[in-house]
Amino acid sequence: MAQGAYTQSFVPKFHDADPAGIMFFGNVYAKAHGTYETFVEHLGFTWKEWFANETWAVPIRHSECEHLAPIFPGQSYDVECRLEKIGTSSFTMKYVFTSSKATHAEVTIVHAFVDLKKKAKCEMPSVVRERLEAYQLKCGSAK
Fold first, then answer.
1. 4 pLDDT higher than 80
2. Is 67 inside any structural domain?
């Protein structure tokens, strides 16, 4: 675990599982995105400032998930936010799902900035870059 990294704990519910009693693979993405939403607030943005911004949006450009071990309902897990890369117009986050016994999944998501008026890629706003870089310094988790 990266020192100072934003981490959120969760216990999967019965409805998160597939018929085999293992968390359905798509729900890993839902938990990762839920952690992303609270991470944005951790950075100091309100939900509206980030997700209903009138100037820019941050859609997902790429995502992938490595399922390493089953995630079971009723057991406790942590999701750690690792800032993997800060680019000119995007940043890459890795959400690492762990328990006391193992790493269960790693979700990597590239978030890209888009100018809403031009409907085109744009530079990351300076306030976002500053807060991501501060997080990077705190955790040492970005390249």
1. no
2. yes
In a domain, residue 1? The reply is no
pLDDT for the residue 141: 59
Per-residue pLDDT averaged across 26-53, rounded?
96
Strands (E), the chain: 7-10, 56-57, 60-67, 77-86, 90-98, 103-112, 114-115, 120-121
CATH of the domain at 103: 3.10.129.10
Residue at 2 is within a domain: no
| Predicted TM-score (pTM) of this structure | 0.91
Q: What is the largest CA-CA distance in the chain?
A: 48
Q: Which residues contact residue 87 at a Cβ distance below 8 angstroms, ignoring those fewer than 6 apart?
A: 124
Q: Which has the closest alpha carbon to 131: 96, 69, 81, 97?
A: 81
Parent domain of 115: 7-139
- What's the number of domains the chain is made of? 1
- Give the chain's radius of gyration (CA, Å): 16
- Distances from the Cα of 18 to the Cαs of 11, 29, 106, in angstroms? 15, 15, 19
